[in-house]
Structure formats: structure tokens, C-alpha cells
């Protein structure tokens, strides 16, 4: 079926532009962009002047399969992603068991293809069992389809093990995704250290724990020449080190979660466990600095860091509660806060959410160009709503920090390979 999107406000993150126009989707790709008429027999979709942008490519989504399907399945994650305008999920390997063998990777790849309406690709663990002692079979895992390698928040503390893994990854051309947090300083921490942590009586971790770990990783990247992506840079003090690493020619990129650029430490309020994240929310000065780094391109990628947790693991004292928040469906409206406050333009936002992650992973998605995959999101950036986590979220887990929040930005339709996988008001 050929689809014709007319009267669309087309967001092009590559060209940095937005303009009214039409699109033809045919054969799974964008066949034409411009002021043409609808092809004969095409399904015509009147966008009503609303925005059409490349579908979001979300690095670092936690799906519960295998082992924790009650928290999130490939089916529920796919439906949530489609409703949120996410057309490609890059799933994390911190499952139970970890995705650390080709057999496990092939299993989850099959399950995802069967169950999800959006594309799901997978990372694999960097070390066996994410235990930080012995690296995985990187070559075999790449052959099985691994997009990148990461132990997620189980930071490899043994420098020799990490240097060997980085050296091997360099030889294979593999991307390693690190979590820059010093594991010793971060252990047991619930919030960022400072006056707020002291007033609440909560164990804190200094922002320098991120800077120290990032500096360690940069030294090893310089030594090995590996391709490296920092999953979350959340502190102002890390930014100069990131800038130096790029200036020195290291193959380094950095990301940040939507929560760390739209929320701060005060949102924890009276021990609200839905705001407990890894790393913890930062002071407002850090949030502003990181948001500005996203605008300038110093931080390359904005992600959801979707981490489903069941009610039982969140209904605990703040120190004991599980960390993480769901975000596939709130990703776009939360990120649009940065557009509404003037920090980012829409092309800049989709550069960070779609184009840059696709480029870093070597994927053809994320582009608004003829011949690019017809993975698109149609949305109204100004539509207001109040989020109700029980009635509005498709994720199995409902642990969102935005419950009850006033938000702007609604997804109207999502297309994967030219096929509509979500339409507002249906299902």
C-alpha cells in the first residue's frame, strides 16, 4: 500500500529545517518529499499541518524478556513504543539471564520479531553474566546481530578486564556502551549528595563519581582506540572531559536520559520513589548544563532509559526501592518541554532522538530523505493532556515520574516501513 502524507510540517534533523510539504511512502521507504500530488490509489493521510519527523531510535530500553516478563514483554514494549513514536528500540542486555551468548541473543531476536509492531534490535553484555570478570564472545555475538556491548549499570571495575574487552572490540569494530559511575562511590546511594540529600537524610553520591569514571574510561579508550558511547552524562563537571575527548579525536559519543534533562533532585520531594533513577536526579544547575550540551551537540543522544519496575519494588522506603522509570510513551512529550522552553528546536530534538542514535549504530533510520526507511511519527507538539499512568500507559509497569503531570505533545500516528502501527484513538 502506498501512503500519501499531505499538508505535513516536515521535520528534517539532518538539514535542520522544518517546512510544510507532502510525503509518499512506498515499498517501505520514503519515495518522495515535496509539493507533489497524491499517487493514484494511495492511501491519503491529511496531517492537518501537524509535525512529521523520523521515528525515534531509542538506545537503552529495558525489556523484561527473558526472566522478568511480568514487568515488560516484547509485545507490551512494542505497543508502548508505537504509541510514543519510537520506531526502533535498542534493547539492553541486563535481563535474567543476561544476553551474553549467541543463543540467548537469537532467542530474544526471534521473540521480538514475533511480538513487537516496531523494530527491536539488541545490545549484548560486555562480560559474561555482566560480572566484570571475563569478556563475552564479541565476534560471535556480532554475527548474531548484537548492535553494541554493555554491562549497563554493572560497571566493570577491573581495568585489565575492561582494557582487554575494549581492545578486542576495537579489532572487531564493535561499539562499547559504558555507564560512567564509579561503582564504589555509587554503591548504596539514592540521591545526589548535597544539601537536599542531607535534609532528607538520604545516602548520596557526589557528581564527581561520574566524572571520575568517565575519566577512567577515556584513558582506556585512548589506550585501545575503541569506539565508545557513554550512556548517560548528567553532570556539568563531566562536560569539559567529554569536550576534550572529542577534541583529541577519540571515537566517543555521549547520551542522556529524558528524565535528567527535564527533572531535578527536588522532584524527589517527599521520598517519591518513581523519581529514583540510576544515576540519581541532579541539581538544577547540572540539568541546565546538560540540556545546553544537548543543544550544542556536545551530548549527542537523548534516550528514554526505559526501565520498568513492578509496584512491589517501588512501594518501599526510598533507599530500598528499585531504581528506574518507564518512559517509552512519555519520551516525546517530556522531551518537548525542551522545545517549549526554547532550549531546542524540533530539528535539534530529532537530531538527538533519531538521527544521531541511528548514525552511531550504523542504522539507516532517523533520516528525512528520499530512500530512507519510512519509519515516521506524526504528532501535535502543542496538544495538552494530563498523564494518568493507569489509563494511558500501555507498558505493563506503570512507574512513571510524570503521573498526574501536565504535558504537551501527542503522537497521532506512527509508521514503521510505511505501515501504520499506531493511530491515536484506536485500540
TrEMBL record:
State the Gene Ontology BP annotations. Answer: purine nucleobase catabolic process; pyrimidine nucleotide biosynthetic process
- Dihydroorotase catalytic domain mapped to chain residues: 49-231
Superkingdom to which the source organism belongs: Bacteria
Instruction: State the InterPro entries in the record.
Output: Amidohydro_3, DHOase, DHOase/Allantoinase_Hydrolase, DHOase_cat, Metal-dep_hydrolase_composite, Metal_Hydrolase
Instruction: List the lineage, top down.
Output: Bacteria, Pseudomonadati, Pseudomonadota, Alphaproteobacteria, Rhodobacterales
Note one Pfam family from the annotation: Amidohydro_3
The record's annotation in CDD domains points to: DHOase_IIa
Keyword set for this entry? Pyrimidine biosynthesis, Zinc
Q: What is this protein called?
A: Dihydroorotase
The cross-references to PANTHER family, in alphabetical order and at most eight, read: ALLANTOINASE
Amino acid at each position: 500500500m502506498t501512503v500519501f502524507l499531505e499538508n505535513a510540517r516536515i521535520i528534517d534533523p539532518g538539514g535542520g529545517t522544518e517546512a510544510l510539504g507532502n510525503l509518499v511512502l512506498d515499498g517501505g521507504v520514503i519515495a518522495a518529499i515535496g509539493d507533489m500530488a497524491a499517487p493514484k490509489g494511495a492511501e491519503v493521510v491529511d496531517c492537518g499541518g501537524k509535525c512529521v519527523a523520523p521515528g525515534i531510535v531509542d538506545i537503552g530500553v529495558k525489556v523484561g524478556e527473558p526472566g522478568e516478563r511480568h514487568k515488560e514483554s516484547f509485545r507490551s514494549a512494542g505497543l508502548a513504543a508505537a504509541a510514543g513514536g519510537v520506531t526502533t528500540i535498542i534493547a539492553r542486555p541486563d535481563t535474567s539471564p543476561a544476553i551474553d551468548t549467541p543463543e540467548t541473543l537469537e532467542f530474544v531476536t526471534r521473540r521480538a520479531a514475533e511480538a513487537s509492531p516496531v523494530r527491536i534490535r539488541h545490545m549484548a553484555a560486555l562480560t559474561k553474566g555482566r560480572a566484570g570478570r571475563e569478556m563475552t564472545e564479541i565476534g560471535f555475538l556480532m554475527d548474531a546481530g548484537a548492535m553494541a556491548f554493555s554491562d549497563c549499570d554493572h560497571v566493570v571495575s577491573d581495568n585489565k578486564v575492561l582494557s582487554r574487552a575494549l581492545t578486542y572490540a576495537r579489532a572487531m569494530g564493535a561499539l562499547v556502551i559504558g555507564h560512567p559511575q564509579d561503582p564504589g562511590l555509587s554503591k548504596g546511594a539514592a540521591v545526589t549528595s548535597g544539601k537536599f540529600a542531607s535534609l532528607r537524610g538520604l545516602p548520596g553520591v557526589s557528581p564527581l563519581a561520574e566524572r571520575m569514571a568517565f575519566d577512567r574510561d577515556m584513558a582506556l579508550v585512548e589506550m585501545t582506540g575503541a569506539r565508545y558511547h557513554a550512556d548517560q552524562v548528567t553532570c556539568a563537571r563531566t562536560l569539559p572531559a567529554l569536550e576534550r575527548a572529542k577534541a583529541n579525536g577519540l571515537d566517543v559519543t555521549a547520551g542522556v536520559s529524558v528524565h535528567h534533562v527535564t527533572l531535578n533532585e527536588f522532584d524527589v520531594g517527599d521520598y517519591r520513589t518513581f523519581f529514583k533513577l540510576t544515576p540519581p536526579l541532579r541539581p538544577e544547575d547540572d540539568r541546565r548544563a546538560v540540556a545546553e550540551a544537548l543543544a550544542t551537540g556536545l551530548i549527542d543522544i537523548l534516550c528514554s532509559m526505559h526501565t520498568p519496575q513492578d509496584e512491589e519494588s517501588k512501594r518501599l522506603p526510598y533507599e530500598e526501592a528499585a531504581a528506574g522509570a518507564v518512559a517509552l510513551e512519555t519520551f516525546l512529550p517530556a522531551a518537548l518541554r525542551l522545545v517549549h522552553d526554547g532550549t531546542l528546536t524540533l530539528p535539534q530534538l530529532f537530531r538527538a532522538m533519531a538521527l544521531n542514535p541511528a548514525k552511531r549504530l550504523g542504522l539507516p533510520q532517523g533520516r528525512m530523505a528520499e530512500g530512507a526507511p519510512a519509519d515516521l511519527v506524526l504528532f501535535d507538539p502543542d496538544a495538552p493532556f494530563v498523564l494518568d499512568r493507569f489509563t494511558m500507559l500501555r507498558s505493563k509497569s506503570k512507574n512513571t515520574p510524570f503521573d498526574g503531570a501536565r504535558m504537551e505533545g501527542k503522537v497521532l500516528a506512527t509508521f514503521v516501513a510505511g505501515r501504520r502501527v499506531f493511530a491515536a484513538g484506536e485500540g
